[in-house]
Amino acid sequence: MMANGTLTMGHIIAQTKGNLVSNMDNDKVLMSINSGKYYNLGGIGGKIWELIETPVSVEEIVAALTVEYEVGTAECSSQVLAFLHNLLQEQLIEANVGAGIHSK
Amino acid sequence: MAYLLHVRKGVGTMIPSIETTNYEAFGMRIASQLALPELQRVYIDDAYADIEIQYGDLTRVWAEAAIARNSYNLIDGGIIFTIPDTAIFSVEEGKRITVSPMENGDSSRIRLFLLGTCMGILLMQRGVLPLHGSAVIIEGKAYAFVGDSGAGKSTLASAFLGKGYPLVSDDVIAVSLDPDGIPIVTPSYPQQKLWQESIDQLGLAANQYQPLYGRVNKYAIPVASAFHTQPVPLGGVFELCKVEGEETKLCEIERLGRFPLLVRHTYRNALISLLQLEQWHFATSAAVISKIGVYQLQRPSAGFTVQRMAAQILELTRKGVS
Question: Which Pfam families does the record associate with it (chain A) (predicted)?
């Protein structure tokens, strides 16, 4: 698990269990069964949610998004990290330090 | 004769009759061993029935299933539950309801649970979202009125009925998604429940109507003539709630707020998790929510404001519900 709340490109991101998920128009909506809270992840947020269906690193998420959307790696990285930080605070995801990858 | 005896034994020895009658409700053809005077009769071959309602002895199944002393328990393919002094019911695979009456179980009380709880469970098993409330048709679309008991759902529906707008349901509103993802309401059956006060206000004479079993001052009013029988798209949901003050107020519910609203007003919502249908309910809600308008209609707890509410709803539907 994360040591001090700082998410880095090397972290492996995984969805937590116990969320209901659905598409609503072009958005991805979620409900946490544990907290009873509802979330709208939006369109790109929904894409990220799909990317982490099996655990992947932040770096891999950013790489996938920069292929699909017209966005630079630096800009994409900071936005993805901020988005994942929110999901982490809401306990919708888990972040683990990947094996063999040293966090920066 | 030997064959007949064999059949009777097979269904249980306490069975008064194994004759079936065919009915229609919620767009389904029902072959029932229990007489159901509330429903519309249809004359079809039993083989074409969508669901069957049968007598059967569930005492042993109940004893085996009721391990946790819950009133509702899972069995293979469905749910079994007991209503004290009435009957044991099982609802399986969205197509079969079995009733095991208790000694002195009142038949109209048995039908209350059969057409209520059992039908609600069966609809969910069939992937149909049952909302608790009344629905009327305005300009070719169904509008659902939901709310707590006593919020004024039936009364509001009656006001629309009085203005010539047909009723599609007065207790369980069956919402399903068509192949294009459009939410559709399938009419239930022509019966309306009304409280004494509302009957008086609407100028109907209470002594003409049959009181519903065990519900003093609540009457069943057959409304076959003003009852719509074809499926229609769902246009909107209005949640009625009583508030302090003198104004009636209509406000739109934002997208995410619509999810808990639909959970609150899903018929027998406590059974969603037992049926392991949370994900289905969430996905169905998302599909419904994005296609209709969802509003809260606040009304003063004192006074009779039904005509004012009806006028506000009509004004909104004319402007186009978003």
Answer: PqqD
